[in-house]
Write a structure and sequence with these properties.
The structure is a single chain. The protein is built from 8 helices and 9 strands. The chain is α/β, with parallel strands linked by helices. It has 2 domains: 55 residues, no CATH class; 202 residues, Vaccinia Virus protein VP39 (Rossmann fold), CATH 3.40.50. α7 crosses α8.
Length: 272
């Protein structure tokens, strides 16, 4: 029943009144009144968000995506759903594993997952990697994953500062994976991560990073990143961008990468 606020401008005021009268006739005053409150409040909310987004861009504010705020949010998050609250459907998730994770993350390699959260993708990476390291800003996530994968001898989990890969040797990784994490990381921290990617990947090693593509203008606590910005940051660090993906088709069904105009960027360290 919810609508897109921007679509309301396609109806004139007179037509809206006519629709309201018809709604009262068919649904009664209470239902129509409640919907009227929703329309009013959601319209105000959209305008407030738009102004906040514009101010953030103009002044270079971190918004909700500073390291400190990210740490506070994810330390306090209820990880009971293990991150699957962001999966549109089991079919979407299974298709993403087949068409992105298994396509780009090599089998039997040394892999780092940045931001494992509750282990939503870790369960697939753990089966695929010879050695998997999960690195997260949140101790709560590290503890949850350590408990969940306690019986697996090829995994380890520990925290970082929010922009580095501690305890990872130079030129030691075959792959880096991160999903639903860099959507919340601003460019300043992404640049620090990119330098770490270039340091830690083997020549020919691959990275698969899910990130925002519209600079936070669609909500979802998204950071200031875009496809263009991600490409610029990675190439400035000496990495090669192989693909930027905002959707894929599987068995005739088109799937979007994320809920807020997100993308996945696939990159490699030149060499090998």
């Amino acid at each position: 029943m919810k609508d897109l606020v921007e679509n309301r401008s396609r109806l004139g005021f007179g037509k809206k009144l006519s629709l309201a009268r018809q709604a009262v006739k068919e649904n009664g005053f209470l239902w129509t009144g409640l919907m009227g409150i929703y329309y009013l409040c959601s319209g105000v909310a959209e305008k407030a968000f738009g102004r906040a987004a514009a101010r953030r861009e103009r002044l270079g504010l971190p918004g909700m995506n500073s390291v400190a705020l990210n740490k506070e949010i994810w330390e306090s998050w209820d990880w009971g759903a293990a991150g699957d609250e962001w999966s549109p459907s089991p079919e979407w998730k299974a298709s993403l594993v087949r068409n992105i994770l298994e396509k780009y993350v090599p089998d039997g390699g040394r892999v780092v997952e940045i931001g494992p959260g509750g282990g939503r993708w870790t369960e697939y990476l753990q089966k695929r990697a010879a050695k998997l390291t999960g690195i997260d800003l949140s101790q709560a996530c590290v503890d949850a994953c350590a408990k969940r994968f306690a019986g697996c001898d090829n995994v380890e989990f520990y925290t970082n500062s929010g922009c580095d890969l501690p305890r990872i040797d130079d030129r030691s990784l075959d792959a880096i994976w991160s999903f639903d994490v860099f959507v919340h990381i601003n460019r300043a921290e992404v640049e620090k991560y990119a330098a770490e990617f270039a340091r830690a990947l083997k020549p020919g090693g691959v990275g698969v990073i899910h990130h925002g593509n519209v600079g936070g203008k669609r909500g979802g606590w998204r950071s200031d990143m875009t496809d263009t910005a991600m490409r610029e940051v990675l190439e400035a660090a000496g990495l090669q961008v192989d693909a930027q993906i905002d959707h894929w088709v599987d068995g005739g069904t088109e799937h979007e990468i994320g809920l807020y105009d997100d993308s996945v960027t696939v990159f490699r360290k030149p060499g090998a």
